[in-house]
Specification:
Elements: H1 4-16, E1 22-30, E2 35-39, E3 48-50, E4 73-82, E5 87-91, H2 92-96, H3 98-106, E6 112-121, E7 124-129, E8 142-145, E9 166-175, E10 180-184, H4 196-202, E11 207-217, E12 220-226, E13 229-234, H5 240-244, H6 246-249, E14 255-264, E15 269-273, E16 280-281
Parallel strand pairs: 3-5, 8-10, 11-16
Antiparallel strand pairs: 1-2, 1-4, 2-3, 4-5, 6-7, 6-9, 7-8, 9-10, 11-12, 11-14, 12-13, 14-15
C-alpha cells in the first residue's frame, strides 16, 4: 500500500468484514508459518492470512505446500479481523466441511451432548455424538481430553470408559484446529472436591485420621480418609521399612492411621504422614 487513499480504502474494507463471512481469493504466497491470499473483495494487497492449523482438518499441522499452491483459488471463512496487523484471518477448514463447521459453531459452552464412545486412546477419548455429523478424519466429532474424563485418579482412559459405551458430556469449546467438540465427562458428575472446603474447615494440621490405602506409587502412598477425599503420604513421611519396600509393607486396601501435615484448599491437596505424632483425633 502506498498512498493515504489506499490506506483509507484498506481500513474501510477491514471494518466491513465480519467474523463468519465467507471470502474467496487467490493464493499469493505459501510459507510454513502462514499462507497469504489476495481477496477478491480487496485486490490491492494479500491481506487474507490462513494459519497452518486452519488449512485443512484432513492435514492438520502439515506444511501448506502439500495442500495448496500459489495461484490456487480458495474459499475460506473469516475467523478474526486484525486491524493492527491489517489482516483478515481465515479458515479454509470451515468451507472444507461446512456441515461440520455449522454444527460446531452452533454449540454453546455448558450444553449437554450424548453419544457413543468411538475410540479410547492413551491421550483421550473420541465420541460419536448423536446429533453430530461424521468427522473427515477422526472416529468421532467429540473429544474428551484426559483431565476431563473423571474427577478421580486413573492411569488409562479405559479405566473410565469403554468403546461402545453411551455417555453424556458437557460441551466446553469448539477446537477449530481439529474440527472437534471438546467435551467434559467429569463436568456431568458430582465434584468430590466440593467437599474439600468443608473437610478443610473440620480438619487441621496435626489431626489424626483413619483411612485406607487407595494406591501405592513410586513417590508415596495415597490414602482415602473421607468420602471423595484422598491424601498423599510422601516417601519422606513413610516409616523407614515402608520407604525401602513400600510394595511389601503397604498394600491397597490396608487400614492406616495418619497425621495431617498440610491442607491446601486452593490446590485441593492433602499431605499426610505416618512418621509424625498427632495432636488430636480429626473431625472428618
Amino acid at each position: 500500500m502506498g498512498t493515504v487513499e489506499d490506506e483509507s480504502l484498506l481500513t474501510a474494507f477491514l471494518r466491513s468484514v465480519k467474523v463468519g463471512d465467507v471470502l474467496t481469493g487467490t493464493v499469493a504466497a505459501v510459507a510454513q508459518s502462514e499462507t497469504t491470499v489476495v481477496l477478491d473483495a480487496f485486490a490491492g494487497d494479500p491481506v487474507g492470512v490462513i494459519g497452518p492449523l486452519d488449512l485443512s482438518w484432513r492435514f492438520s499441522g502439515r506444511f501448506a505446500a502439500g495442500i495448496i499452491e500459489v495461484g490456487g483459488r480458495v474459499s475460506a471463512e473469516v475467523i478474526a479481523v486484525d486491524l493492527r496487523r491489517r489482516q483478515v484471518r481465515l479458515s479454509r477448514s470451515a468451507t472444507e466441511n461446512p456441515q461440520l463447521w455449522a454444527y460446531l459453531t452452533a454449540l454453546r459452552p455448558g450444553q449437554r451432548l450424548s453419544g457413543t464412545v468411538a475410540a479410547v486412546e492413551r491421550f483421550g477419548v473420541f465420541v460419536d455424538l448423536d446429533d453430530g455429523p461424521d468427522h473427515p478424519v477422526f472416529p468421532g466429532v467429540g473429544f474428551i481430553s484426559m483431565p476431563e474424563l473423571s474427577w478421580r485418579r486413573f492411569e488409562d482412559p479405559s479405566e473410565v470408559v469403554s468403546v461402545g459405551e453411551r455417555i453424556t458430556c458437557e460441551f466446553l469449546v469448539f477446537d477449530t484446529c481439529n474440527g472437534e467438540a471438546r467435551l467434559s465427562l467429569r463436568a456431568t458428575q458430582p465434584d468430590p472436591f466440593k467437599h474439600f472446603e468443608q473437610f478443610a474447615r473440620n480438619v487441621h494440621v496435626g489431626d489424626v485420621l483413619h483411612g485406607s490405602v487407595s494406591k501405592v506409587v513410586p513417590f508415596g502412598v495415597f490414602v482415602r480418609v473421607a468420602d471423595g477425599i484422598e491424601g498423599l503420604i510422601p516417601l519422606s513421611e513413610l516409616p523407614a521399612p515402608t520407604v525401602e519396600a513400600s510394595g511389601d509393607e503397604v498394600q491397597v486396601g490396608d487400614a492406616v492411621t495418619v497425621i495431617v501435615v498440610e491442607i491446601d484448599p486452593l490446590r485441593r491437596r492433602l499431605t499426610l504422614s505416618r512418621r509424625r505424632r498427632g495432636s488430636r483425633p480429626g473431625g472428618a
